[in-house]
Amino acid sequence: MGPEALDRLFREARTATAFASRPVSRETLVELYDLLKLGPTSGNCSPARFLFLTTEDARRRLHPALSPGNVARCDAAPVVVVVCHDPLFFEHLPRLNTEAGLRDWFAADVGLSEETAFRNGTLQGGYLLMAARALGLAVAPMSGFDAFAVEDGLLADTGWRANFLVALGYAEGAEKSARAPRLAFDEACLCL
């Protein structure tokens, strides 16, 4: 991977603060998913599920669940993604992983299956962020919302659990904000 790709994914990328009115097509969302689904998960369990809110009406349905600071960002984005996980992900394991008995192992242990679904679903949400940037989309991940309200209002028929939100679209304007500070290697890492 060349420096241009690293710049696009990491060094020059910033959390979106404004979105252009340009819509994100369904074809782009399919391409986005087709990239992110290739990222590894433990045992290929693939528990993440994604709710793409693509209309103004659908995004407005989020308002009661949002922290006040996230309302304008969600309204401005052409798409808001609810990154979820399926607690019953193991029902798909016989198709996704050939290891005998794996489905039954998770089905018999609710704690293990919930932990696995949350951890790997979050990982797949990170893949969504990177795949979106690779496709030229801007992203703004958010955790300021009432997950239970989203689940009751938008996900009740699915059984999925909401994890975090991502405002998604094309960046407005070319000016980038200064990068916020990050921890140094020695502050965030240990080598044993």
TrEMBL record:
Highest taxon listed in the record's lineage: Bacteria
Entry GO MF terms: oxidoreductase activity
Membrane-traversing stretches: none
InterPro entries documented for this protein: Nitroreductase-like, Nitroreductase_HadB/RutE
Xref: SUPFAM superfamilies: FMN-dependent nitroreductase-like
Protein name, UniProt field: Nitroreductase family protein
Organism of this sequence: Neoasaia chiangmaiensis
